[in-house]
Write a structure and sequence with these properties.
This protein is α/β, with parallel strands linked by helices. The chain has nine helices and five strands. Strands 2-1-3-4-5 form a five-stranded parallel sheet, with helices on both faces. Helix 5 runs parallel beside helix 6. It is found in: Membrane. Belongs to the Toll-like receptor family.
Length: about 190
């Protein structure tokens, strides 16, 4: 739910309320076959001192006891963007398909362009199964980032990805966002224990 106040401050309050609900900058969807690249390259370059972003991914943020579908929906809803690490393995995964479906639905519901595509390896259109028609359409209409094999170009790749994830972020105080995030995580954990 958005909070709206009349006048110029109303828009800022509405955006900041939306930002606070989204406790992560991005949800990352990837095939288990690509986990090494995600763990060793993507996460270190986006999270912590290198990137300063809060990234949501299933290994860290899925809540035990919830169904996988419930976890996917919850995680996508808590994020401003969804990053899809595309590979031949990605398009063979049912779970990746569900994650793409829910992120696309959220994008349509919110009317925002919240999906970022990262092409980890060349992925010819003919290799993409027909059930991924939304992905084919997005790849034809939107710009996506391609992982460069040339190390000299990788720095620019990370800068572009960080920029895509930080687009339109309001200037909400970090401590306020962190406090909200910590409270929400505590409530989730207490709900599991009680």
């Amino acid at each position: 739910m958005f909070m709206y106040y009349p006048g110029d401050l109303g828009v800022v309050a509405m955006i900041q309320e939306s930002y606070l609900r989204n406790t992560f900058h991005a949800f990352v969807s990837y095939s288990q076959h690509d986990v090494d690249w995600v763990r060793n390259s993507l996460l270190p370059n986006l999270e912590g001192p290198a990137g300063g972003l809060r990234i949501c991914h299933h290994e860290k943020d899925f809540v035990p006891g919830k169904t996988i579908i419930e976890n996917i929906i919850s995680c996508v809803e808590k994020c401003r963007r969804s990053v899809f690490v595309l590979s031949a393995h990605f398009v063979k995964s049912e779970w990746c398909h569900y994650e793409l479906y829910f992120a696309t639905h959220q994008r349509l519901t919110l009317g925002s362009d919240s999906i970022v595509l990262v092409l980890l390896e060349p992925l010819p259109q003919y290799l993409i199964p027909s059930k991924y028609y939304q992905l084919k359409s997005m790849m034809n209409r939107h710009t996506y980032l391609e992982w460069p094999q040339d190390r000299a170009k990788q720095r620019l790749f990370w800068a572009n990805l960080r920029a895509a994830l930080q687009t339109d972020l309001p200037n909400a105080p970090v401590t306020q966002v962190q406090e909200h995030w910590a409270e929400e995580r505590l409530e989730e954990r207490q709900g599991l224990m009680g």
